[in-house]
Amino acid sequence: MTIHPPAASTAQETRMARPKWMRKAVAAGREFHVLHQDRQAHNARNLASTAGVLLGIVAVVLSASFVPATPYLLVAPWLLGMLYFSIFILVIHECSHDMFFYPADRTATRPWNRRFGQIFSAPFFTDYVQHWEKGHLEHHLRPCEPDDPQDRDPITGWPLAARLALLMGMPGSVLVFNPSNQYGFSWKRFGFGFLGLVVPALLSSWLIAWHAGVAILLGMHTLQILNLLKKAQEHGGGLAQAPDPLLRSRTYFYPLQRLTSPFNIHYHFEHHANFRVPWYNLPAYHAKLRTVVPLELQDDFFHHRYLAQAAGRFPPLDPSHIYNTSPLPRPPASAPAAR
User: Which one of 12, 109, 154, 283 is CB 3.0 to 4.6 Å from 236, fit for a cystine?
Assistant: First the structure.
């Protein structure tokens, strides 16, 4: 079936009433909502996972003491970047939805999550309050629109390839593309980033090995590379033209997803359908949506065409196709497995 782009030029011009199947998809997430989880088990899972990621960072850095510089610098920046990215997904992102830490006193939820978010954002020169606590909410309300501070223009194709090549070939270019730059220069943000990243890199170079410090800094490049690839998969390929904000995201599967899309962030259609579902419940939510999203639309929103999406060759959504489908299909006899 050939999919054609919508006639209107912008998402705002094509807004329509939410499809019935999409309303059911949102409702299907209620049973997985963070408020329905065991508070202590939730906190223990998140804190233990965070500790594991931090231990991983320490282990990679310390391994520079016995791994020669050349093989170390070929591998360690990528490992550290994936671990940094894990911190963003597990801690910073979940904090922005007030569900990294779930205190007994619900009125303390926002202060606790803000505290964790600010601490873990600091080493990455990131303005947590502006870009995540406020900016990520804007992103969910108006994804890919001009006032979306996080994904107003997710790049794909040659522009994406050029940005990736620059990040891989020019040390320090990561600071130029720091998303928090849009809020203006901040000595506070710069100071915390210097203390949280540059000082540990200098100390590691002195106390462990020179290439340990270099890998710590180069890991920032890997972090941004993974983030750009994530944005392209989640919201690129014409999704900005979808008439409903909840239809501007895709879930994607690919062989390295557990390493480079940690903590289930690739379940992105589910996350936008109900952003209060914690990361560990997204696979179960996805399985439920397989019985809700019309079968003829599932390949639009749950796909394995990673390279096509990154290249910008994924067909845009057709609103008439989305709105003329059966609102509640029967559960498939054998739904395609999520890998």
Answer: 154
CA dihedral angle for residue 88, residue 90, residue 96, residue 102, rounded to 10 degrees? -150
- Is 223 in contact with 193 (CB distance < 8 Å)? no
Counting Cβ atoms within 10 Å, is residue 19 exposed (0-12), middle (13-18) or buried (19+)? Answer: buried
DSSP 3-state percent helix, strand, coil across the chain (nearest 5): 65, 0, 35
* CA nearest to 192, candidates 116, 118, 136: 118
Distance in angstroms (rounded) separating the CA atoms of residues 241 and 10: 6
Neighbours of 172 (CB within 10 A): 10
In order along its 339 residues, the chain shows pLDDT tens digits of 333 333 343 444 445 578 899 999 999 999 999 999 999 999 999 999 999 999 999 999 999 999 999 999 999 999 999 999 999 999 999 999 999 999 999 999 999 999 999 999 999 999 999 999 999 999 999 999 999 999 988 899 999 999 999 999 999 999 999 999 999 999 999 999 999 999 999 999 999 999 999 999 999 999 999 999 999 999 988 888 888 999 999 999 999 999 999 999 999 999 999 999 999 999 999 999 999 999 989 999 999 999 999 998 987 777 777 776 655 445 554 455 555
CB 202 within 8 A of CB 249: no
What residue spans of 146-245 are helical by DSSP H? Answer: 157-169, 173-176, 187-193, 199-207, 210-235
d(CA 293, CA 177): 36
- Which token pair is 304? 């394995």
Neighbours of 47 (CB within 10 A): 14
